[in-house]
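For the sake of transparency, this paper describes our internal protein records without simplification. An entry from our holdings is shown next, in its original layout:
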Amino acid sequence: MIEQLFELAKKKRISELEVLTSQSTNFSIQAYKGKIESYKKTNTAGLGVRGTYQNGTGYAYTERLRPREFETLLDMVKDNASLMKEREPLFAEKQEGSWHDSQPNLPEEEKIKLALALEDEARAAKEVSDVSYAMISSGEGTRQIANTYGLNKTYHSNYNMAYLSVIVKRGDEVETDSAYYLGDLSKLDRTKLIDEAVNKARRKLGGKPMAVGRYPVVLDRRVVCSLLGVYSDVFSARNILQGTSRLEGQLGEKLFGSLTLLDDPHSGHERILFDDEGMDTAKRYLVCDGVVESYLHSQQTAAEMGQEPTGHGIRSYKGTVQIAPHRLQIPNGDIDLASLFKEMYNGVYITDVQGLHSGTNIVSGDFSLAAQGFRIENGQMTAPIKEITIAHNFFDLFAQIVKKANDFDFSMPSGHSQYGAPSILFSDIAVSS
């Protein structure tokens, strides 16, 4: 199929062509009140092409993977290239390879039984008034990238996940929280997962606002990951070129105190061995001991800035090349969370934030977010707090790291990128009610 496209591209005077194919199967089952509430199984497949015609780059895609569609597909490439009048460079090295990462997968009947058991046992836990989600999901996919320079790489992987969200009630007060497990479902400890979700929700009960002020703060690892997810775009070379990142012209500058921030594509829930332009990926430090070391590049932005591409060109078969991190993370600390509270002595521990889209400004770095958490008094976690707002600036905050806990974990997978961090003690944050 790909060779057919290459031959047809020659006939149509498309000077270079890249083909990206994707095939995936996804399954999810959700239990509620002892019954299966939702059962979904989807299969998707598509083919996207990017080609150069008369020194312009054009894109096109199809989900009809039949040779008779290829004429129309490549004509669309030519038409779009004529409109763009800008050439995007392709990865121009001959490289080939096929990789396969997989984990054990349960039969669908076992996944259904697992979802029902998880929901039933969670509902029976103390103070649980309802189970919002008791879900088992899995999927597998294959992607292939090839071009007329001899590139041809294929990667196949799968995943399995259990997700639980519970509502707890004490008197008239209600709270909710969740937990997830990623890996071999035959090794899932349901009791552990239920205890995590229930205890996280239960400990929020009785929360009250606190006095306005600036306080030392420990941000839970989930909150740190959420902030990294929002502000990772400041490292995108595309945003540097468009003048929408404060890191423009800051390579080599010490802007982030003691922060070390790296992208390790071979960690997390799934390895990313090559990007969607075919370039091999590797561990890369974006910030090292506070110094800005690197931006994230596609082939095009690297060429425009006269720098080396970094393997961060990301696209689906339907879209154009964007830039995103793979497994962006802050390395683990060396003390446990309880010791971090003792280090802070008095302050706040923030466990949840809301408003990440409306309450953040990517360009300035300012954020103001609704939050929940706990008071830390005399080094101990005491009363829960809620109905507060925390405010700071991303760049300033991460220049004020005091110490990190040793509780590193990745965020729940969502989209291409995944973020990892430990809980972190910062010098202060503004709190209002």
